[in-house]
Design brief:
alpha/beta, Rossmann fold, Arc Repressor Mutant, subunit A, 2 domains, elongated
Length: 216
């Protein structure tokens, strides 16, 4: 099925040139154009394209805000950003708004057609340079904000859950009710928790649990 495409750009020369480029391929059906974000939202409502090819900097409503509205109102429509802006702020603002693809102006016909087809099929696609940047960004985040290790690795997941409820101030009957366990099972688990934490009583267990961030 040929993807139905709406082109959004405030520069008529570029917009019309892109339309001719895509029309000449015979691989997509350009159903309309828009000159700004407000018109893009209205034309999307009218035409229900498979893909909106979206510029970012435009009057009245910019491409990021228009993308957000389109994705929210018409989830079956994918947005492919096609812009000259390659800074991190623009790339990630578009991604957070819900764009499924991001290409830089200057991409050739083959690359644009491949991106339109991918976005129409529900895939996410970025130009090679931008894909590397996205990868580096998330790799840097992983280094700067590593996931916190699970507290009390000697406990099972169920035992950690019970310890968290103890730290939150719940009594044994309340814990049994919350977890749909028998009171005896809760008591046995708590005895095991105390042994593993090497604590003598509930108050010592609560101190350790709250120090580790449980029960808050």
């Amino acid at each position: 099925m040929t993807p139905r495409v709406l082109l959004v750009d405030d520069h008529p020369v570029y917009r019309n040139g892109l339309r001719m480029l895509l029309d000449s391929s015979g691989e997509v059906d350009v159903v309309g154009t828009a000159a700004d974000g407000e018109e893009a939202v209205a034309r999307t409502a009218e035409l229900r394209p498979d893909v909106v090819v979206m510029d970012l900097q435009m009057p009245r409503l910019d491409g990021v805000q228009a993308t957000q509205r389109i994705v929210s109102m018409f989830p079956a429509t994918g947005v492919l950003v096609l812009t000259m802006h390659e800074d991190d702020d623009s790339v990630f603002a578009a991604m957070l708004a819900g764009a499924r693809g991001y290409l830089l102006k200057g991409a050739d016909q083959t690359e644009i057609l491949r991106a339109v087809t991918a976005v129409a099929g529900g895939e996410a696609i970025f130009g090679p340079a931008l894909a590397q940047r996205v990868t580096r960004y998330f790799a840097r985040l992983a280094v700067e904000h590593p996931p916190r290790p699970e507290p009390f690795p000697q406990l099972t997941a169920r035992e950690r859950e019970i310890l968290g409820l103890i730290a939150a101030g719940l009594s044994n009957p309340r814990i049994a009710e919350r977890l749909s366990l028998s009171p005896k099972t809760v008591r046995n688990n708590i005895s095991t928790i105390f042994a593993k934490l090497q604590v003598a009583d509930r108050s010592q267990a609560i101190v350790q649990a709250r120090d580790a961030g449980l029960g808050r």
